[in-house]
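Quick start: read one record
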Amino acid sequence: ALDISLAQYDSINSGSGVISSTGVMKSTSTSSLKSLTHFVPSRNIAKSINRVSAMAILGISTILALSVLYGLNKGQTFHKKQPIGPYALVSRQEGEDFFQNFIFYEGKDSAGSNGYVTYVSREKAEKDGIVKLVSGQSEYNAATDENSDASALSTTESSEWGDGIPAPEEETYVYIGTAATEEGPRDSIRLEGLQRFNRGLFIMDLKKMPAGCGIWPAFWLTDEHNWPINGEIDIIEGINYQSEAKTAMHTTNQCTMSHETIGHATGWWDTVIGVPNAQTGLPDMTMRYATDCYVYDAHQWLNQGCVAVDLEDGTMGQPLNEKGGGVFALEWDPINKHIRSWAFTPHSKVPSNLRDALLTAGNEPDKRVAPNTQEWGLPYAYFAIGEGTDCAASHFKNMRIVLNTALCGSVAGVRFFMDCPIQHKEFATCDDWVKSNPKEVDDAHWLIRGIYVYEREW
């Protein structure tokens, strides 16, 4: 098949016939070469073999590369690099720099919350005296005094914790309160973070939080312009005289917490009872656990979401304040398929690793202590998310920190007659109570040592 006649060879040489890229000879004349359709000319045998060899080597190399990339040789799927390393600080809000990480939202409360407040600018807040920096005794130092011989500590010496991290005698706290107005709704503060997050460890270290009848403070994560599509996580949310910490999550449909929390958390689920039947309007007195994060779940209160409760009382509100505050932490870790919450109060109960991490957050990176949640003990709240659970991790994304103090509204106001029976005897509504400028409302404010966000390294 490789032999050709001299005439055919001359025809090719003279240009009357050509060889196509596929080895097919195409003649430009009506010669007998038309009958020859497939052949390899002898003078191009070596070149053709080289081409075939190169193509074979390229093909084999490609297969091997794909095999390594996708793990086909082991029956495994290749996984891209993931953020599973130790935590590193990405945001620190303390003292004079606290407000640089936020914008001050101005205007009425959202329609969903409908709080009896007007959120004001930083300029007006500072003029009203409801935003300022104050000095006070370090609660870490106070905790040391509780756990050691007080006479052995000089009033001018710093105490030491954990790995020898010094705790200062005094620290700067951020004061955030509210102010009465002639119109009725109080001036208040709503801070909205400048950064967006898709994971992280979110921590607030505080000395005091707003508490009392009609008071509704919150420290939370949300994407308000895409709510509830991108989710909401309430890290701290106190309502009236609530005295136990709760973590709530709010999502679109198909996000439930039907998993077993025993062994994962010390807390339990909030309960639901008395929700009106959608068809009859009669209250459903079946007691259920609030494990459906869907904001419109038919068997839970509107926007109740899935709610985990700390079984230890005194972790929220006035009891928390009487103990000098505490540290709240939420771990949003989609790679490890969970969202978890801790509440440590008083400060003497803060794990040494977490305490040292917070006390060194202002240091240079190589002198900081990295928080390690595995050293903190079980959280009070555990939410399973991601593959293999009943809640896709995609329910939570692109969220930012929000810190605000609402009054009355769709939650604290609706519960006014139940939670504030003494005030309800004199005032028909929560708004009327707040409008009377009671001292309890005047005294309600935040004292925040700092807010910290860490993310796992890649």
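The longest strand covers residues 446-456.
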